[in-house]
Amino acid sequence: MIRAARGLVILAVFATAVSAQTPPLRAAATIPLPDVAGRIDHLAYEPATQHLFVAALGNNTVEVVDAGTNTHLRSLKGFHEPQGLAIVPDVNGIAVANGGTGTLQLIDSTSLQVRWTTPIAGDADNVRYDAGSKRIFVAAVGGLYAVDPSTGKVTSKIAIDGHPESFQLEQQGSRVFANLPGLISSQLIAGDRASWSVQSKWSSCSGNYPMALDETGHRLFVGCRRPASLATVDNQSGRIIGTFSTVGDTDDLFYDADRQRIYVIGGEGAVDILARDGDSVRRIVRVTTRDGARTGLWVPSIKKLFVAAPARGGAGAEIRVFDASTDDFR
Questions:
Q1: In 3, 65, 160, 274, which residue has its Cα 20 to 30 A from 288's Cα atom?
Q2: In the predicted structure, residue 46 carries a pLDDT above the cut 90
Q3: Following CA atoms 41, 47, 48, 51 in sequence, which dihedral angle do they give, to the nearest 10 degrees?
Q4: In whole angstroms, what separates CA 14 from the centre of its chain?
């Protein structure tokens, strides 16, 4: 019995040591983006080709990266402050929102040529694809716009007074949630894609830009800039359940449902990896990136986090790749 007990203690200590030594995210690669200047905005990943698309806003290009070999493939020109990207598998395309011209464009996934361009509204920004309704949703001045990917025509709109930033679509329902940051006060919008209307407007934290959704748990995770923090919100009532201090200048955050983690990417030069236990949040580790690297993409299917670092301080633009596939611990 004593030997057995000792064996269990040794195994427990070993497991604890392995857990402590296993990084939640392993730095796997750095992919240079040649001749890319200026700010970098959002990213999208196409599983069929393993291509990562990068909106190089300040460079007026969309960069194409092979995420399988960690190499830069092409720089696509002819865009105007590209901000949001979304993969549209039903039509073999990639949607690109241009903030400079307020347009949405569809790139052919095979030829990488632009198929169509359609006007949306000023500062066209975040983009998501709703596979259920087969519509591309775009956030721009005046609301959320639904676009038919086959024709490029705007078919519907949820009118919002202002410019919504990050938004999330329910997969099992018809609601949509959007951040509406303001200079004086910020709001969180709950809309409906069936009635094309705003259902609720809730007070939010200041500088609410990125957002992630836990649909089954009825929670929204909202990244706030003033002060730098993460707010956990009940998406039924809009009540802020709790806040947690995070890295500053966040523009992207992601919820890893399998590991119950939240990745907060901050332009302050780090990624905060937060563990979630119900409505409680704690920091596991802060991973250093680079100054200005505030956007990225978590891809659950390949268990990788991509972080975009703009050219700054003599260092060129690059994509940093972090791998979570070897980490089975919380």
A1: 65
A2: yes
A3: 40
A4: 36
